[in-house]
Design goal:
Elements: H1 5-32, H2 42-52, H3 55-71, H4 79-94, H5 103-125, H6 132-167
């Protein structure tokens, strides 16, 4: 089934915004490296698509955004794509219960998606930790910093995606 041209443009815009998100978090991580902290904002990459896109187009966005994240991370290629896809499917499943015209519910959904992806990545990587105790404390600190980052930049990022989609005249579906 071929997608209309405006849908392909919308997919490219959301994938480009996921790339921008990766660049921003990369710079934040560089700045935080002196304190040995790391932030992760993958939940933001799937939230807008999960709340506003049909399943096929949104899953395409999530998988491509995950592959972009995989390209720069030390996990097996495709791991984050799989997790982003699962997070998208979760968000897409609950979107009828989320008032998408308000900012704070969308940010809460992004926080939940980010928590799930972060937890799954941590569990997948836990077998390579030399000792479990100190590593889990560090992961907890990283998770708290990541969630704080999403709470701070989430409204801006979700609005950026909405405004960018308006440039190509793609009007996301409003559920409530």
């Amino acid at each position: 089934c071929a997608l209309p041209i405006y849908a392909m443009r919308a997919i490219l815009i959301l994938v480009a915004s996921a790339l921008l998100l990766g660049l921003v978090t990369g710079e934040v991580n560089h700045a935080l490296s002196a304190w040995q902290l790391h932030v992760f904002a993958g939940g933001l990459a799937v939230t807008f698509a999960g709340l506003h896109f049909p399943r096929g187009a949104g899953l395409t966005v999530a998988l491509l955004a995950g592959l972009l994240a995989d390209a720069t991370s030390p996990v097996a290629f495709g791991t984050q794509a799989m997790l982003y896809g699962a997070a998208f499917l979760f968000v897409n499943q609950i979107r009828d219960r989320v008032p998408t015209d308000l900012t704070w519910p969308r940010v809460l959904v992004a926080l939940a998606a980010n928590f799930g992806i972060f937890l799954a990545l941590s569990l997948l990587r836990s077998r390579v930790f030399p000792s479990a105790g100190p590593a889990w404390w560090r992961l907890l600190c990283d998770l708290l910093c990541s969630q704080a980052l999403i709470a701070l930049i989430g409204p801006w990022f979700l609005e950026l995606q909405g405004q960018a989609l308006q440039l190509v005249r793609f009007e996301p579906a409003r559920r409530r």
